[in-house]
Specification:
Structural class: alpha+beta
Shape: elongated
Number of helices: 4
Order of helices and strands: EHHEEEEEEHH
CATH class: Alpha Beta
CATH superfamily: Hotdog Thioesterase
CATH architecture: Roll
Strand content: 25-35%
Helix content: 25-40%
Distance between the termini: 12 Å
Strand order of the largest sheet: 1-4-5-6-3
Number of strands: 7
Length: 144
């Protein structure tokens, strides 16, 4: 299983009146992690968009454990939790620089045609992506 890692400096603009990272910013950081994972696999999401394919989020799950604050560093770990050729679920763990767990979560995506939002198979359109995702995803109990 491939786990990608992105480091983020918490900026003042990302905090709320309480001085902690505003909850929605973790979703932005998850996107940064997801993009990094795709690049670590040797691909660019922008190429999908050029080809008329989008991968919208269809589900989000986030659990907040400990707050991050301005001036701290966030370490975003991202992996492919589940993939079936059509839908991909990415897993996330965001930790403080000292290792303390801040956030866990997942996002589920499906590839669609940009002109009509009809689902398309990554397996059929991009066999190289499909193979990379199959190789990088979290092993299932059957796969152990």
């Amino acid at each position: 299983m491939l786990i990608s890692e992105a480091n983020i400096d918490v900026r003042y603009a990302e905090t709320d009146q309480m001085g902690i990272v505003y909850h929605a910013n973790y979703l932005v950081w998850m996107e940064i992690g997801r993009t990094k994972l795709i690049e670590d696999l040797g691909f660019k999401y922008t190429q999908l968009e050029k080809d008329g394919i989008l991968a919208p989020v269809i589900d989000v799950q986030v659990t907040y454990h400990h707050p991050l604050r301005y001036g701290e560093k966030a370490i975003v770990k991202t992996w492919i939790d589940d993939y079936n050729g059509l839908r991909t679920t990415y897993g996330y763990e965001i930790r403080k620089e000292n290792g303390e767990l801040a956030v866990t979560g997942s996002t589920k995506h499906v590839c669609v045609k940009s002109e009509n939002f009809k689902p398309v198979s990554l397996r059929k359109l991009y066999p190289d992506w499909h193979q990379a995702y199959e190789s990088a995803k979290k092993p299932t109990l059957e796969g152990k």
